[in-house]
Amino acid sequence: MASVPSPIVMLSAIAVAMASITFFATRSEEPTERRVDQATVASAEPTTPAHEATPTATKKPEPRVNRGEVYVEVFNNSGIKGLAARTASRATQVGWQVVGEDNWYGAIPASTVYYPARLKAAGKQLALDLGLGRTALAVSPMKMDRLTVVLTADAAG
């Protein structure tokens, strides 16, 4: 008579497999990242003396971010209990549409807002809103229709 493994053993084996896949998926790619803070944004804005006219034809409008239309998922990659929930609450308070929070398994060097290419402006805005200094293009297994925030211990301070 053959015995059937318990559901806990099966779930544990699946969890280990998923953690391994995530580890290998996130460690092989060098992230393209850029530090974003208020000083960087301010220094990037052109300054024009008051007596000079700025041509309107060459100035591109800044993309507007409607926070309520962008999905956000927040993940905790630290040992700090409740970090994802607190950060999700802060994001919701400023208007972002937080659709999930959970733990992240993998190696992330610092708290990061990951964005798909079409949501680049929104990703940078969310990083500013949350006081996070790192953004990067989203990678698999992240969902490509939303922003993904992965928090490390540096986000707690």
UniProtKB/TrEMBL annotation:
Residues 44-58 have a biased composition (Low complexity). It holds the Pfam family LytR_C. The chain crosses the membrane at residues 6-25. The keyword Ribosomal protein does not apply. InterPro entries: LytR/CpsA/Psr_C. Keywords: Membrane, Transmembrane, Transmembrane helix. Residues 70-154 form the LytR/CpsA/Psr regulator C-terminal domain. Coiled coil: none annotated. Residues 29-63 are annotated as: Disordered. This is LytR family transcriptional regulator. It comes from Nocardioides seonyuensis.
